[in-house]
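Mods, move this if it's the wrong board.
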Amino acid sequence: MIVEEHTRTMPQHSLQRVRMHVTGQVQGVGFRPYVYRLATSMGLTGFVRNDPGGATIEVQGRGEDVDAFRRRLPEELPPLAGIRTCIATAAGIVQGEDLFEIRPSTGGELTDAQVTVDTATCADCLRELADPDDPRYRYPFINCTNCGPRYTITERIPYDRPNTTMSEFDLCPLCAREYADPADRRFHAQPVACPTCGPHVWLVDDRGDQIACDDPIAAAAEMIRRGRIVALKGLGGFHIACRADDEHVVGRLRRRKHRDAKPLALMVADLDQARRLCEVDEQAAALLTGAIRPVLLLKRRPDAAIARSVAPGLDTLGIMLPYTPLHHLLMGFDLPPLVMTSGNVADEPLTRDNEDAVAHLSAIADAILLHDRRIARSVDDSVVQARPSGPVVFRRARGYAPAPVLVNAEHSPVILAVGGELKNTVCLYKDGRGALSEHVGDLSDGRTYRRFMQVINDLEKLLDLRPEAIAADLHPHYLSTEYAMRRSGGQLAGRPPLPMVRVQHHHAHAVACMAEHGRTDECIGIVADGTGYGADGAVWGCEILRSSPATFQRLGHLRYFPLPGGDAAGVETYRPAMALLVDAFGPEAADLAVAKRLVPEKDRRKHLLGQIEHQINCPLASSLGRFFDAVAALAGVAEANHYEGQAPMTLESLVAPGVGDAYPVVLTDSDPFLIDHRPITAAIVADVDAGKDPGLIAARFHNTVATFCLRAAEKARWLTGLNTVVLSGGCMANRVLSAALEAMLAAAKFEVLTHRQVPCNDGCVALGQAVTAAARLAHSHPQPVIEDVGETGRRPGV
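Not the wrong board. Structure tokens:
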């Protein structure tokens, strides 16, 4: 907490009045009731109210009591509250005031207020939920000031009941009394409700007809127990649930959902059930049972009683514990671990409305559990991985969004950054605060693109911010970039023209990681992923950058290799594998045993090799993601990516323990320097021909990638004198690679910065775009400022 004081010294026995403006997580977390109770317990008078920037407090009393209040304020906060700044000024004395009150919120331009994130049901509410004598016994919408829905029901701020979807439910005498009682846990709890006045649940069949039953949740649980598939309306949208221990049931769900191989999230009743499936250490247990309760990626136990089709080919499972009262009630019926996956078809957006659920989910689910608490915005479950160095967010959604990322930056205009094409998020940025949206998804799907536009509209409306500039990727055909171009040109109805800043994809990655750590100086960026549009028109994907918020220089990269078939090379792994073979062995690649296995048909193999040789539809790439795909194909463990990252994830799962050696690493002395993949490919082929185990090949390859990244960082340090390395890009989600690389860099005396608040994948790109745009606009450089990137490498041999 930062405390700035501007009060003049007064005698301690004199009456004082102090005004405090507080910013941080102070709305929707019981902060005003807390201030009320603290002030009244100390005999102080005055008021507290929400305002567009956070909260304003005025306290009056004896000098020593006012000082004690200011000292205790940050020390006894409610569980979900957090103070960022508290600026105190002398406010004069109001004569005759004899009470402390909570005053109505004030309006005006939003400055520093935070939208509160949704949180899991607290222990007090769970005790009441299980108490037969409590008026909210088994009520699926129980909540208090310390827990429950926030962002998903908030339509605008300040966070007051009239500004939420709970405004549709009038309080009964019980709830009204608790809401108005300063001594009650539900004092000013905006979503407060009970069975008499609040939302309720009901069960319908796949035609939308209500199923008669005394307890809809019990009926849904029994259907699941008998192998049926049930959709249920949760906090930020619908889930689809079924038994996770039955191959036939999981297979039926996959067929109906059109999700052939992508891993499915699980919900378990408690930590004991989680420990029977996965390795759960102390840090993982804290994340599973904490206030956010994300989907946590954990190492799977070999004897886990889970259908293999839940996460085929992987050694991890995505586990979460119940986080809403409805989930707790459902799992309380002694169910086995459940698949609890997003309520949508394939990669479409999450369903949130009852009518849409009946229309779109009835083809998947045998029954649908509905309720009438309207969801203001759909928010997926967050996905997190527990690492020794701390939790890493892979999908930033429920419990995290839209909490701002605080950046060490100067005043800036309001900037809308529209992110990338995959794993899209958007960011509204002003004065060093980046409000990053929830996960949106793949914009190539029409419904997801419409949601992308809706998320932008919702975020602007919620935060009451009007963009003054827009930032977008360099890629000319990203749908997010096309949106930015239309908005920049004033081609969207009701939207004025905006100056546009184009940001190179990997530079945005590096800046996002720097921004998380408040760094505005130059750093070495190692950014590795599948694809990103390069400044030279090639496909970049393993980049060593000299990066500042405004500019970057490409110091080195993985040697270019062709991607036969373009986008098809990101799906069919034999394509980049054959390209690497041609690069390493030349014309002799056609006669290699591994090439014949990859493409058995002689004519087809000859055609592909000719395509590569003559560079027909073969864009050049420096992509580490495609290198991983190729090695998975060479090792014989993955023929295709049925979902993004499947082949690299499979290769990661096969890494044999205890392997310390690596394949040859060669860096050139060119400018930019190149990481030569040809010796690596040749050594892998030798291991394949020798019949080496795929787990050994996977281990050596991971060691090799970590080694050449270390060598690249050392070369970058020698070239620039910089000693701080930021790691970003989707490849850094690989726990084996990241652990090895972080350890190597630390041993080489580098300062290593990694993502913690935002994903390392493309979910961070919007934040990086916004920070870069702010830096460029501050220096009057709206267009990309890029130093020499070297040769474009239009031939595979370059």
